[in-house]
Amino acid sequence: MKAINSPYPEASSDESILYSAFSLRPKHLDPARSYSANEAIITGQVYEPPYQYHYLKRPYQLEPLSASAMPEVVYLDKDDNPVNANAKNIAFSVYSIPIKHDILYQPHPAFVKDENGNWLYHHLTDEQIANVEDLADFEKTGTRQLVAADFVYQIKRLAHPEVHSPILGVMAEHIVGLKEYAEQLRAIRKEQGEVDLRQHEISGVKTIDDYHYQIKVYGKYPQLDYWLAMPFFAPIPWEAEEFYSQPGLINKNITLDWYPVGTGPFYMTENDPNRRMVLTKNPNFHGERYPAEGEDTDKQNGLLDDAGKPLPMIDKIVFTLEKENTSYWGKFMQGYYDVSGISSDSFEQAVNISTSGEFGLSDEMKAKGIKLETAIAATSFYTGFNMLDPVVGGYSERARKLRQAISIAIDQEEYISIFANGRGIPAQGPIPPGIFGYSEGKAGINPYMYTWKNGQAERKSIEAAKQLLAEAGYPNGRDKKTGEPLVIYMDITASGPDSKSDLDWMRKQFRKLKIQLVLRSSDYNRFQDKIRRGQVQMFQWGWNADYPDPENFLFLLYGPNGRAQFGGENTANYQNKDFDKLFEKMRTMSNTPERLAIIKQMVDIVRKDTPWIWGFHPKQFSLYHEWNHNVKPNLMANNTLKYRRIDTGVREKLQSQWNQPILWPLGIVIIVIMLMVMPAVFIYRSKKYKKHHFPST
């Protein structure tokens, strides 16, 4: 029997539905633009790039997804003559990618034609659009087969001047002709106003036939395999872009950023940013099987019980808007959300820490059958300095010492202890544990922030920070020349009661140096815009590894990737010619001792320049109710919901047990009402009795 207080009245016991939540609406669901974690949870389920990470195997291993095999790579010299893979004169690498046959797109109105073969919805009139409020209002939907040209079309979109893809700067350095193609499109748009990507080709990207395409890159770039597992390289049908380009639909937010079009196991059927988003099983999905092999422990952990079964194993994914952690946690404990992280407020309720420092579930969690999964995240949280800012930016000794002073004063160890319940380690540089180039122990400390004492890293004293601040020209937090107090502005997205203590703590860190900190809060979308324009002084940011290679972290500090100047992922707009030169050499190398030595030089450079306050690398804690099956953390993949299985019978039974109506307060209320009413009843009956037996004369 369903619990009477279920927040999902429409839920059917016939459907297998996974329930989750979101706190911020994804800004971009267009795969050429999307690059945020809250967007990847959607795009990962809808789009299918050529490759994916094997769900169970470790170390992480790529396998075909929409491709039929791993790419064939041919190396060429400057005259396009084939050379050996180990040759020193490699000028180009050509990746040939075969794709699977008989893959269909999700149902979508962009594919519908009328009886005469004309597009039904590509040229809508104002009258037709007036009756449309969302994508579901279109009466008819269609589909078509995936072809290699769709992959090429998406790569072209990375260069489209109206798309503003965040990886254009990175990819233009690698894909032959992409930079020139972007310049060509900008010129065409300036002259003609519109650009039809089908009429213009990239010299280094070619459609061979319906099931083969090629990408030509400069030199050797082994990381391209990883990029080909990201939604940036997922296919997009030109019909979808043509459909969504209609101004009337754009005015109603019916765009690729709101309603993605893919071939994956799910497609978006509802997008209401003020209430919920829904992904539904794609009826046109080409099919995939649950993996039959993994790590040695996977079988005993039940992760191979569904080997060979068709995917996806759930029918629908419902994301509900939850702005407060406490509300989400309460519903998780009632069984209305299937999975939960652990906030600081709920940590003590959920987790016990042994005397040896080991984490385990509390008795309350065990009693509910909840399971805990942990993983060291390939993630860096940091506070960035805008290197274009005249106060905290620049490369003078003054600016460098100012940044170092602030970095010492912000006590990451204290932050981790208070706000992350010890779930993390202080960062010593941009590379997290588990990624090639990360060093542990004494050899891995940041000498500008730490000293090695008694066998461990110890943060430098606040006195050392004050000395650096004075040397930077701000003794006691005042400008030595003007006497004015130093005021620093930090842009944040945090707001509301949940973040007050966090922000108070940050102000306290700056007060140690007598620096006035002004926190400027805005919603995430506005915050992203300010970062893109370079209109910040300091900001808080984080990066999850897209792929398991140090290049994926070091490129965040590569000059040509500057966000404000080039639209890349270098949000600090940091630029150091020595670092950039080493990066260009390192990025195409295999993981050799020589590459490790170069990475060490690069890390030493950025430690000294301090474009970031090196924050911390978190440890992920996730709680799962016992009705969840096939759960294994995968830090690289975003498309893992298709593997999940929900035992809806167990969920409904436990929800009913955990949400029994409490009737005794109602009984008390009834008794109180009766006690209040009874005197009136007695008085009424008394008056009636007197009137009947003693009539007036």
UniProtKB/TrEMBL annotation:
One of its GO terms (biological process) is peptide transport. It is found in: Cell envelope. Residues 145-563 form the Solute-binding protein family domain. GO terms for molecular function: peptide transmembrane transporter activity. InterPro entries: SBP_5 (IPR039424), SBP_5_dom (IPR000914). Its main location: other. CDD domains: PBP2_NikA_DppA_OppA_like_18. Keywords: Membrane, Signal, Transmembrane, Transmembrane helix, Transport. One of its GO terms (cellular component) is ATP-binding cassette (ABC) transporter complex. This is ABC-type dipeptide transport system, periplasmic component.
